[in-house]
Design goal:
The protein is mainly alpha-helical. Helix content is 76%, strand content 0%. The protein has one domain.
């Protein structure tokens, strides 16, 4: 077992002295992760011309987990399903165009592909959500080409938000390591699950 670094030992002593629960420490760390990652995502995307990076922010929240391994799993599973949804949405747009009947058929097909072919259960819902984003862009602009372009941009925004969330999680785990108390280590995820 690794010996905790100096900062981790001091944080654990402070947690015990103040009587703070592990769950509260994890919540505080998650809050700090989201705070930092929101600043990074929002400001960096605004700098490159994305005026409303809400999709990146929403995706970042999912991967800014205080436990880096959980963050990695969410990133992997989210990106797989984002790409499935994007591919399905784009395929339906290119083949059938941005007609109203395309949306329900594309979403149902995307669900089947995500659940029966790809089978990455965590984040299954992300695939049809992404397909809907891609197709909705074509509806709102009345242009299949614009829908395809906007679909790619939204997917890139989601991927960027996920990546920033993971990086902040990894960096914060080095700066502020959350130690699982021995009593909660065996058989419990600290109230998370």
């Amino acid at each position: 077992m690794n010996t905790p670094r100096f900062g981790a030992r001091q944080a654990e002593v402070l947690r015990q002295r103040l009587g703070l629960s592990y769950e509260l420490i994890v919540a505080l760390r998650f809050s700090v992760n989201v705070f930092i990652a929101t600043i990074v995502v929002w400001n960096s995307l605004v700098l490159v011309g994305v005026t409303k990076p809400i999709w990146a922010i929403a995706s970042m929240i999912g991967t800014a987990d205080p436990e880096p391994e959980q963050s990695r799993q969410v990133l992997r599973n989210r990106l797989i399903n984002v790409f499935v949804g994007c591919a399905c949405g784009l395929a339906f747009l290119v083949i059938a165009g941005g007609r109203p009947w395309v949306l329900p058929l594309a979403l149902a097909t995307t669900v089947l592909i995500s659940t029966r072919v790809v089978r990455v259960k965590m984040m299954w819902r992300q695939a049809p959500i992404t397909a809907a984003i891609v197709i909705a862009a074509a509806f709102t602009s009345q242009s299949t080409r614009h829908g395809v372009e906007q679909g790619f941009l939204k997917v890139a925004e989601v991927a960027y938000g996920c990546l920033v969330g993971l990086l902040v999680s990894l960096l914060m785990s080095r700066v502020w390591r959350v130690q699982v108390p021995p009593a909660e280590d065996a058989g419990s995820s600290g109230g998370r699950g």
